[in-house]
UniProtKB/TrEMBL annotation:
<dbReference type="InterPro" id="IPR001926">
    <property type="entry name" value="TrpB-like_PALP"/>
</dbReference>
<feature type="modified residue" description="N6-(pyridoxal phosphate)lysine">
    <location>
        <position position="47"/>
    </location>
</feature>
<feature type="binding site">
    <location>
        <position position="261"/>
    </location>
    <ligand>
        <name>pyridoxal 5'-phosphate</name>
    </ligand>
</feature>
<dbReference type="InterPro" id="IPR001216">
    <property type="entry name" value="P-phosphate_BS"/>
</dbReference>
<keyword id="KW-0028">Amino-acid biosynthesis</keyword>
<dbReference type="InterPro" id="IPR050214">
    <property type="entry name" value="Cys_Synth/Cystath_Beta-Synth"/>
</dbReference>
<keyword id="KW-0663">Pyridoxal phosphate</keyword>
<feature type="binding site">
    <location>
        <position position="77"/>
    </location>
    <ligand>
        <name>pyridoxal 5'-phosphate</name>
    </ligand>
</feature>
<feature type="domain" description="Tryptophan synthase beta chain-like PALP">
    <location>
        <begin position="6"/>
        <end position="287"/>
    </location>
</feature>
<dbReference type="InterPro" id="IPR005856">
    <property type="entry name" value="Cys_synth"/>
</dbReference>
<keyword id="KW-0808">Transferase</keyword>
<dbReference type="Pfam" id="PF00291">
    <property type="entry name" value="PALP"/>
</dbReference>
<feature type="binding site">
    <location>
        <begin position="180"/>
        <end position="184"/>
    </location>
    <ligand>
        <name>pyridoxal 5'-phosphate</name>
    </ligand>
</feature>
<dbReference type="InterPro" id="IPR005858">
    <property type="entry name" value="CysM"/>
</dbReference>
<comment type="similarity">
    <text>Belongs to the cysteine synthase/cystathionine beta-synthase family.</text>
</comment>
<dbReference type="GO" id="GO:0004124">
    <property type="term" value="F:cysteine synthase activity"/>
</dbReference>
<dbReference type="InterPro" id="IPR036052">
    <property type="entry name" value="TrpB-like_PALP_sf"/>
</dbReference>
Length: 300
């Protein structure tokens, strides 16, 4: 008998309906709000998909080989997923991230055997990306570059999008995703638009002054190369306070223990639902809430 390995458990995550948050209002309008539970992946986030995809496909092409050192700047979830994927495939993983991100993320990366380099909070993800480029230029490793690597959106085109289409029986009308590397929204949009061009793709971005882990509004010079503006029909801004409040509500009212970026996407999904009728709105629960406990978003 051939048994599954841990990498075989990535993907095919549940899609569940919200039952209580604005339930009566949504029922009256004929709307259904569905949450794609990507926290059910083995390393706890939607980033498990592109992490394994980027390493496995680079290895298939002969760009890397087991034992090599891989370098990647990350805001957290991609780093955790890459640390797991590197452990599976036999690579040394060096992760670079801003120092103000949650301690749970850093500890999880180290648990998978990754080496962690912290950059100043003031520099944000831009500083982490710059340092990664410097280390690669010095010959200290190979960068997978989630921001420009087409194996990132490709895996969402091949797996996440088809799963959502099948799980909704093709009834999806709106897809909402937090925007970080933009791999998820770009890949899923590409698939869903091929199936039905009328499906609306909505990106959640942070409002001015808001810091929401996993959601970014990039300066033009740092805009991910994989991002296709034509793939997104609408951008909606969400505040840090609204995302954090929705994070607590998802846990208390729906039993969905998701992260802050996931809650931001949920908040946007609810805003969209107020403007439409007879809609099936899907949002991505990017990760689990347990990696945000030290941030104070959940009351002690």
């Amino acid at each position: 008998m051939k048994y599954k390995t841990i990498q075989d458990t990535i993907g095919n995550t549940p899609l569940v309906a919200l039952q209580r948050i604005r339930a009566e209002e949504n029922r009256q309008r004929g709307n259904t709000i569905l949450a794609k539970l990507e926290g059910n992946n083995p390393a706890g986030s939607v980033k498990d998909r592109p992490a394994l995809s980027m390493i496995a496909r680079a290895q298939e092409r002969g760009d890397i080989k087991p034992g090599d050192t891989l370098i990647e700047p990350t805001s957290g979830n991609t780093g955790i997923a890459l640390a797991m994927a590197a452990a599976i495939k036999g690579y040394h993983m060096v992760l670079i991230m801003p120092e103000d991100l949650s301690i749970e993320r850093a500890q999880t990366m180290k648990a998978f055997g990754a080496e962690l380099i912290l950059t100043p909070k003031s520099g944000g993800m831009e500083a982490a990306r710059d340092l990664a480029d410097t280390l690669v230029a010095q010959g200290k490793g190979i960068i997978l570059n989630q921001f420009a690597n087409q194996d990132n959106p490709r895996i969402h085109y091949e797996t996440t999008g088809p799963e959502i289409w099948e799980q909704t029986g093709g009834e999806i009308t709106h897809f909402v995703s937090a925007m970080g590397t933009t791999g998820t929204i770009t890949g899923v949009s590409r698939f869903l638009k091929e199936k039905n061009p009328k499906i609306q793709i909505i990106g959640a971005q942070p409002s001015e002054g808001s810091r929401i882990p996993g959601i970014r509004k990039w300066p033009q010079e740092y805009l991910p190369a994989i991002y296709d503006p034509a793939a997104v029909d609408e951008l909606v801004l969400v505040s840090q306070s609204d995302a954090e409040d929705m994070c607590r509500r998802l846990a208390r009212e729906e039993g969905i223990f998701g992260g802050i970026s996931a809650a931001g996407a949920c908040w946007v999904a609810q805003q969209i639902a107020q403007k439409v009728q007879n809609a099936t709105v899907v949002f991505v629960v990017c990760d689990r809430g347990d990696r945000y406990l030290s941030t104070g978003v959940f009351p002690a």
